[in-house]
Design goal:
Blueprint (H helix, E strand, L loop, with lengths): L48 H16 L9 H12 L1 E4 L4 E4 L3 H5 L2 H6 L16 H8 L43 H11 L6 H23 L1
Antiparallel strand pairs: 1-2
Protein name: G-patch domain-containing protein
Organism: Lichtheimia corymbifera JMRC:FSU:9682
InterPro entries: G_patch_dom (IPR000467), GPANK1 (IPR039146)
Length: 222
Amino acid sequence: MERSTSTPPSSSPPTVPPLRTGLSRPVAFVPSSDNTRSLSLPPPSTSSGDDIANLYRSIVSSASSPSSEPATSIPIAEDSNASSSSTTFCAECNKQIPESTMKEHIQTVAHMVSAEYMRSVDFLTLNQSNVGFRMMQTQGWQYEEGLGALGEGRRHPVATVLKKDRSGIGHKHEPKRVTHLSRDIEQNFKKELPQPPSGKQLARKARRESKKRVAMLKYMNE
């Protein structure tokens, strides 16, 4: 048997249908325009320092001369000079303050520290219901002042403590403790008893009395 050498007929590849969209005709591509916007910058200033100096010199010279007519920018300079010339003396800070900034100066911390505000009076524990309080007011004492002729003494009364016991002043409650024995107490009692005078004491007393008697007789005879 012989093998057949004939090739089978080649089949053509399957064709893929093109992808279709909802649009019936293709959209034409629109290229971007070449017209770009150019930023217009202002030309650089060519004014030098001399021009600015001349401007300030003209403003100052026109402001100092009373006969010259003021320009458009001169009234501002005149107002600033007028406001700076009118000042007010601050006694608390000991310096001159412009009147335009006086309100702001009063609210500053430096002025508040320098100002001498009256201290708030501390309230007393006594009032009109106290007899001594009313008596002091009738004698001319003022509530804000202290005691004394110049009012510089003590204002508040001396603090007291209610005494509820019958002990003496300065008495301290201490627990009881044994300080003496019975024999010590007896010896101390015997010492406190009046002792009869000795012979020497009696003789000394007799000599003193005799001397006083002789001196009295001598004084009476004179």
